[in-house]
Amino acid sequence: MRHADHEIDPSFLHRFSPRAMSGEDLPASEAMRLLEAARWAPSSGNGQPWRFVYALRGTEAFDALLGTLVEANRVWCIRAGAFVLVTSATALPDGRPIASHAFDSGAAWMSLALQGSKMGLVVHAMAGFDQDAARRVAAVPADHAVHCVVAVGRPGRVEDLPEKLRPREEPSGRNPVSSFAFEGRFPA
Ligand SMILES: Cc1cc2nc3c(=O)[nH]c(=O)nc-3n(C[C@H](O)[C@H](O)[C@H](O)COP(=O)(O)O)c2cc1C
Description:
Radius of gyration: 18 Å
CATH class of the domain at 26-156: Alpha Beta
CATH architecture of the domain at 26-156: 3-Layer(aba) Sandwich
Shape: globular
CATH topology of the domain at 26-156: NADH Oxidase
Helix content: 25-40%
Order of helices and strands: HHEHHEHEHE
Bound molecules: flavin mononucleotide
Strand order of the largest sheet: 1-2-4-3
CATH superfamily of the domain at 26-156: NADH Oxidase
Distance between the termini: 34 Å
Number of helices: 6
């Protein structure tokens, strides 16, 4: 059970990253709702540098992204309903770099994650994948950064997970605010 030390909207505590998914398809309309939430994220100069490649279960693109995952992720992602590859444009059309591309895309991913949580979906980001392979299968342009693959699906049975993952199907804790937020300046 998660507890906030200071009062916040419960949606922040309810979101977590389960692994148990049902293997059902995710309708395209639901994928669109997640992407719509991401759309409204803030970004530097409203530049919106995030770029998502989504793939629905049952398609070649889904199988291709599944194939880029490390084995430890693939074992539970076989029951995902969709994948979303999060990338971002690193430069403007005139070649000037976008300094905030990763920060902005992080905000967009979190919007997607919170929307999914509100819809009762599993939404689980992964850095455990072969970035070059993902770039290849999703045709990500060279001037775009590849960040993570997000698994999305309907909740499934914990018993269907490999045994060692079952105890991890619980919301995790967090460091206290005092460990990462400092008034005025970093502590000496
Ligand atoms: C960028 C990023 C990469 C992650 N990579 C993986 C991964 O490869 N495999 C995995 O099982 N979880 C992965 N996670 C999930 C984190 O372990 C999880 O978000 C963290 O433990 C906090 O737990 P919570 O999301 O349930 O609150 C990743 C999360 C993020 C944001």
